[in-house]
Specification:
Elements: E1 20-29, E2 33-36, H1 48-55, E3 59-62, H2 69-84, E4 93-97, H3 108-116, E5 121-125, H4 131-145, E6 151-158, E7 176-186, E8 195-198, E9 206-208, H5 212-218, E10 225-227, H6 229-251, E11 260-263, H7 268-278, H8 290-293, H9 300-310, E12 319-326, E13 330-337
Parallel strand pairs: 4-5, 4-6, 11-12
Antiparallel strand pairs: 1-7, 2-3, 6-7, 8-13, 9-10, 12-13
Helix pairs in contact: 2-3, 6-7
Amino acid sequence: MSTPAPKGTGSITPSEGAKYARIMGVGGYRPERVVMNSEIIEAIDSSDEWIQERSGIKSRRFAAKDETVVDMSVEATREALKASGLEASDVDAVVVATVTHPYQTPAAAPILADRLGIRGAAFDISAACAGYCHAVSLASDMVRGGSARHVLVVGVEKLSDFTDPTDRGSAFIFGDGAGAAIVGPSDVPAIGPTVWGSDGSQWKTISQRDSWVEVRDGDLGWPAIGMQGQSVFRWAVWGMAPVAQKALDAAGVRAEDLDAFIPHQANMRIIDAMIKQLKLPSDIPVARDIAETANTSAASIPLATERMLREGEVPHGGLALQIGFGAGLVYAAQVVVLP
């Protein structure tokens, strides 16, 4: 039997998108409860001084017991919509970056969309601490490709549910929160090329210690996230500055052109090492929110961006280099124009 030939009588009409995309506005939500290091140290036989010296963390926010990643996302989204001058009805797609939505399915995004009255596409991505930068890249491509005009991007985590309070290597690291951004069309380039990648050979360095199957079989409670601190530190310090530099080069921007550097808030020493390797001028504001928010994974970059803009630390319309990196191991970086 011969293979049939295509009819050749029809052709696909391509979608038409915007020439460029930009972040139109950002919003943030920080849970009410502030947890100082003093609440953490007894269970891990540590001290406030040790935690601050090791990570730069002084405090973090924990969500209420009945507060979900969707609840936090709603609050952050409302702020982002307000900053963008848009209504929820203007949003065509929702992308949520999270690793702490406690359901394998459904994703958090459709539930969030329903809470907001949105009926557009809605899906989650799992890229840990690099999730927000991944989602911004996807949203930019969606706007430029014509599959959406306005995309809601949310980075949100409730890591307090997935933290072992007795684990000396990780109990002090994590916090909760949500950051949101609206990505829409632009007349000028405002989201630079994304430099991203992964090294799955090192997946065990940051991972959920037990699979859901092991949790079920062993009645282990919440599956905590563990970390091989020194391995992660070395990877981040020596591997991520070159990625950040590639993002600058891809955007045609020099370090001295930046108005802000907004790295993932993983560790203060990692941030300091990246500044040194990138040779950033001392007058460029650098996000150091980890001191008060700890590591909020996918939420850390949008939360820091929102605060820096709200407090007037960085200018609206300025250039910012953002980079996320974490479990996977995965990473992503891009230069963006601040909304």
